[in-house]
Amino acid sequence: MTQPPENAESTAPSPPTGFLAEVKDAVTTRAALLVLGVLVLQLAFVTSYIGAFHLPKPHEIPIAVAAPAAPVAERSAQQLGALPGDPLDPHVVKDGAEARAQVENREVDGALVIDPAGRTDLLLVASGAGASLSQALEEVVGRAEQAQGRTVRVTDVAPAAKGDSRGLSSFYLVIGWCVGGYLCAAILAISAGARPANPHRAVIRLGALLGYALAAGLLGAVIAGPVLDALPGSIWGLWGLGTLVVFAVGAITLAFQGLAGVIGIGLAILVIVVLGNPSAGGAYPYPLLPPFWSTIGPALPPGAGTYAARSITYFGGNGAGGPMLVLSAWAVVGAAVTLACATTRRRPR
């Protein structure tokens, strides 16, 4: 056999060397773009939370006004509705019993029952719907009454439990359920690729997610209720809500992953964490949030879940129907998109 000459130059190109070559090997273009996306997500997180919480002020808080004489109630409602900045949205009801019923049914956030024979009126609030909201009502109505030479006596018709500091336990419970939902979905998808390979695998993942949601919903309700004695509401009601929250968040995360691959995890964080958490009405209920956050909050899983959890815990389930429909819509759409992506995606050869 003929051996090539020892000094023959190799025709294979030598790999690039130097610092720039090492940088390209260490951080690929795809990785750099993902890091840039993380930076954008981080800045959006800071902007969303500070924007929602830095300057809370009451805006059009629904309040019922009642008095023995209709003209007195109407005049008082007009005065409250004309306050600078529109902090209240008053409407007249026929008597104090109806006013209380509307607060307990979550049709309004408070009620003012006027006593024309005296100088002290009755203000009904519900701190179970958020301590900051009831305090804002006391402050606004108290100033308005003081300007008329009157005082108010406050009665809390749905007080927060002793273990529920400022009515925030419902919010934290729902946030925990949301975190579990998108982390479970992310693990199910990433463990075998960012996109579902076929409809069967998508169905299996959705089934696994449902099993996880049932366990997470029950355990969360038990911890918040009997274990920590924070939420006195129905364990069965909270279990059902928790299951729905976890499955809805997980399903929409799987849907985002089916549409955008690993970037879908970032999209889920954007919707649930960056936009959903500050607009959920936890620390500051909707009437205290800026318009953008108070508008999107009820339509996102954290906001719908928080409102429903407070309704189940302190209001006998009153007002929970709408938020449960919102969560159900997220669950159905997320599951449908997940299955559609798995069905239409071509299998790799």
What this model shows, in words?
The chain is an alpha/beta fold. It is 59% helix and 8% strand. It is built from twelve helices and five strands. A five-stranded mixed sheet has the order 2-1-3-4-5, with helices on both faces. Helix 3 links the parallel strand 1 and strand 2. Helix 6 runs antiparallel to helix 7. The protein is elongated, with a radius of gyration of 27 Å. The mean pLDDT is 89.
Radius of gyration: 27 Å
Question: Quick check: average pLDDT?
Answer: 89
Low-confidence runs of at least 5 consecutive residues: none
Q: What is the H/E string?
A: HHEHEHEEHEHHHHHHH
- Give me the oligomer status: single chain
Distance between the termini: 42 Å
Sheet of most strands = 5 strands, mixed
Measured as a percent range, the helix fraction is: 55-70%
Structural class, from helix and strand content? alpha/beta
Number of helices: 12
List how many beta strands DSSP finds.
Answer: 5
Sheet with the most strands: spatial strand order? 2-1-3-4-5
Q: Tell me, briefly, the overall form.
A: elongated
What is the percentage of strand-forming residues?
A: 5-15%
Helix-strand layout with pairing:
Elements: H1 19-26, H2 29-53, E1 61-66, H3 70-81, E2 88-92, H4 96-104, E3 110-113, E4 120-125, H5 131-147, E5 151-156, H6 169-190, H7 199-227, H8 235-260, H9 263-276, H10 291-296, H11 301-314, H12 321-344
Parallel strand pairs: 1-2, 1-3, 4-5
Antiparallel strand pairs: 3-4
Helix pairs in contact: 2-9, 6-7, 6-8, 6-11, 7-8, 7-12, 8-9, 8-11, 8-12, 11-12
